[in-house]
């Protein structure tokens, strides 16, 4: 196993909005390493058994501690600093995993943002059959079919998807805000960020209006709007 693989075992870096993708990749990796049961709590921290030799117990405890903290290290190395700086409060991988799940596994705007982002960027891979490709697409379609989200918030998702990295702070704030802000209010925040942050690329109000005009659809279903989002995103 390469040293780089040990330090950062998966390609996805958790930033909050991509929790589902990150969690699935990390879970698959840990299962492959036979470490997932520690995360689930099936293999708990050892306790000294009656008449157990101190040396033997020490070995069992050391082995568990080593695996537990290796998992924590991997979770930390695959998370952005704003997230992994909170990990010091956790001594077990199970507690940390549960914390991340509670914090980010929410069916809100960030969740649908991730679904749309996955859909737009998903391509058939080399050697992958059409049926295998469709099998990856189907769960995303199913979740979007069940989406109870307004058209304005779907349009907001598209606006946020199109913003460059310099707008990450305002994008993250809007995606995780509760209650959700309106489309107009969100755009005002984006324009405020542009005006007060000299490092952000300069957009014009007319540019945002043009983008919104592309998103107007006569269909009210989430899947129809999703298809429109994909078409717009892939158009040159």
Automatic annotation (TrEMBL):
<protein>
    <recommendedName>
        <fullName>Retrotransposon Copia-like N-terminal domain-containing protein</fullName>
    </recommendedName>
</protein>
<dbReference type="Pfam" id="PF14223">
    <property type="entry name" value="Retrotran_gag_2"/>
</dbReference>
């Amino acid at each position: 196993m390469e040293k780089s693989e040990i330090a950062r075992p998966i390609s996805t870096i958790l930033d909050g909005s991509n929790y589902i993708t990150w969690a699935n990749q990390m879970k698959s990796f840990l299962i492959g390493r036979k470490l997932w049961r520690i995360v689930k709590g099936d293999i708990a921290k050892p306790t000294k058994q009656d008449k157990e030799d101190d040396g033997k117990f020490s070995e069992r405890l050391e082995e568990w501690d080593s695996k537990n903290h290796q998992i924590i290290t991997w979770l930390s190395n695959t998370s952005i600093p704003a997230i992994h700086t909170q990990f010091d409060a956790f001594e077990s991988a199970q507690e940390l995993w549960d914390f991340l799940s509670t914090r980010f596994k929410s069916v809100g705007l960030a969740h649908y943002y991730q679904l749309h982002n996955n859909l737009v960027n998903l391509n058939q891979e080399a050697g992958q059959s059409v049926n295998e490709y469709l099998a990856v697409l189907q769960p995303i379609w199913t979740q979007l079919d069940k989406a109870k989200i307004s058209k304005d918030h779907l349009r907001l998702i598209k606006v946020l998807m199109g913003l460059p990295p310099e707008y990450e702070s305002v994008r993250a704030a809007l995606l995780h805000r509760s209650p959700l802000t309106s489309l107009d209010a969100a755009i005002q925040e984006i324009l405020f960020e542009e005006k007060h942050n000299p490092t952000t690329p300069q957009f014009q109000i007319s540019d945002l209006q043009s983008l919104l005009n592309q998103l107007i659809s006569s269909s009210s279903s989430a899947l129809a709007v999703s298809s429109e989002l994909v078409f717009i995103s892939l158009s040159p």
